[in-house]
Design brief:
about 210 residues, Alpha-Beta Plaits, 2 domains, alpha/beta, about 30% helix, Rossmann fold
Length: about 210
Amino acid sequence: MIRKIIKIDEQLCNGCGACAEACHEGAIAIQNGKAVLVRDDYCDGLGNCLPTCPTNAISFEEREAMPFNEEAVKQHQKTAVHTNQNVTSKLQQWPVQLKLVAENAEYFSNSDLLIAADCTAYAYGNFHNDFMNGKTTIIGCTKLDMVDYSEKLTNIFCSHDIKNVTVVRMEVPCCGGIEFAVKKAIENSKKEINLKVVVITIDGNIKS
């Protein structure tokens, strides 16, 4: 059927999660740092999420979509409650500290690599699901470790085929060191490696 339903502009979305909180039907979720419509039949088309979006990333459109299914929403909400009570770790390897990982470790080969500042997992509540899922994870703090990470990261990038690198850092100035080290290492490796940088605010939201 043709009906009114929400549309989310991924380019405008900053991943703050305000829309997901406003949607009582659970039609919106944050995945990989962006808001997404989980299923058409979860959206009632009333638009409670629209006024909460700070970047105007949500609008209405009329298109072919499944009708709103109240029973499916109730079942989804029950499942979501159960799932939230049984969150499992998404960590794929050990160790995780950048100072401890071996540069020649096999888990780096053909990996999607997450390089995260230590504080981010404590500031951002759904860190495992939104950032670690399916990725090799390494963490560090350039301020506390007092080391230039770029040399070790360069060796890792040169020794393995890294598909993508995601840097998750805090908004505080000292956290810029880990972003700088990764960018320098990619440049030094002379490789074309896709890089995404996500900044977490001190109140636990995604800034960019």
